[in-house]
Amino acid sequence: MKKALITGITGQDGRHLAELLHSKGYTVFGMVKGQNNPRAEQIRTDFPYIELISGDLADVLSLGTAIEFAQPDEVYNLGAVTYVAFSFSQAELTANTTGLGVLRMLEAIRMVGGQQNNPIRFYQASSSEMFGMVRETPQTELTPFHPRSPYGCAKVFGHNVTVNYRESYGLYACSGILFNHEGPWRGLEFVTRKISSAVARIGLGLQDSVALGNLDAKRDWGFAGDYVKAMWMMMQQDQADDFVVATGISHSVREFLDLAFAEVGIDDWSRHVVLDPSMLRPAEVDVLVGDASKAARELGWKPEVDFPQLVKMMVRHDLAVESAKLSK
Ligand code: NAP
Ligand code: G4F
User: Fold this and answer.
1) Most ligand 2 atoms within 8 A of CB, residue of 180, 209, 280, 281 to mutate
2) What is the DSSP string of 242-268?
3) Does 165 participate in catalysis according to the annotation?
4) Could you give phi then psi for residue 133, rounded to 5 degrees?
5) For each of the chain's 328 residues, which pLDDT tens digit applies?
6) Is residue 78 included in any domain, yes or no?
7) Most exposed: 16, 144, 151, 166, by fewest CB within 10 Å?
8) Using a 6 Å cutoff on CB, does residue 235 contact ligand 2?
9) Do 28 and 117 reside in the same domain of the chain?
10) Hey, whose CA ends up nearest to atom 14 of ligand 1?
């Protein structure tokens, strides 16, 4: 039976990945940060099979201790400061966690797993934000990076150091360059879930409007449940490598609004959306679209949930959440 250690277990992808690995018979360890993290309790309730370990990507000793304890075959490094807008206001924290945290984890793996024939496999959660002001469309594994935020810069460091440790020490270290992926477990700060939650409440008459920033931004949005399968596949190859994971189709925030409001029977959403300049970013990533043909060819991965299905799934989930609150 394989053992996996997941950082970022309390986040969206941590939950999906834990579910996938458990279904494959893995023993799953999840790292939680903080002395009394309220999200840990929810993980204990929803996923009783996960063994939680305390640790922080800013503290290398805690990472080493966690690896020593779990003795994992696979480490999935999903933990990070992940909200791009927030990274502008706490850039140093972002660099330390999202960037240097990757280096610390790689060092901890080397410390515990040994310098030669290290058996621990490592997955780094890289991001399409690294492409930023894109140099070509669609973006592939070979597209140069041009990050547009402290978050994007930190992810570039994390990606490069993963490649460097693979090349320098022969570690099985791979990097998944994942485009935006969403679902019912997405944090409420991200635009898709902010919209699905607000639309559900507007549809139920609980609120009147939602304040948003740049409606013209375009993203290649997929379903998180599909994307964690690609993470696992990358970790089962003979040789570690890097892969873009994307649907290949880009949609604007406006298109997301169209489908989300249609789900609650509203065709003209203009009076329900307020433009809030404070949601605009100092530098924006206008449009992202990925080419995942390498993942299709070498891993056999392809997305299963399309954009309309994703929006429907999210709005329906939030309608159920809000309705359950009402009936309490
Ligand atoms: P998320 O929901 O925001 O979760 C982030 C996780 O990181 C949380 O569990 C958080 O824990 C943890 N974390 C934050 N600071 C930490 C620290 N100092 N030490 C240890 N853990 C820490 O993010 P996600 O959407 O699941 O994304 C997973 C990973 O994929 C992230 O690295 C993200 O940057 C990357 N990624 C995501 C997407 C996407 O579209 N979702 C696309 C490309 C790449 P607490 O909140 O409990 O403290
Ligand atoms: O949902 P977002 O905050 O996601 P963003 O910035 O693309 O980052 C997400 O995807 C990355 C992968 O490319 C991950 F690496 C990262 O960790 C995160 O998961 O914003 C999407 C777009 C942006 O252009 C933003 O300006 O939506 C625009 N937007 C418009 N109004 C808004 C809002 N974004 C948010 N969060 N809130 C708004 O009110």
Assistant:
1) 180
2) EEEE--S--EEHHHHHHHHHHHTT-S-
3) no
4) -80, 95
5) 999 999 999 999 999 999 999 999 999 999 999 999 999 999 999 999 999 999 999 999 999 999 999 999 999 999 999 999 999 999 999 999 999 999 999 999 999 998 888 899 999 999 999 999 999 999 999 999 999 999 999 999 999 999 999 999 999 999 999 999 999 999 999 999 999 999 999 999 999 999 999 999 999 999 999 999 999 999 999 999 999 999 999 999 999 999 999 999 999 999 999 999 999 999 999 999 999 999 999 999 999 999 999 999 999 999 999 999 999 8
6) yes
7) 144
8) no
9) yes
10) 80
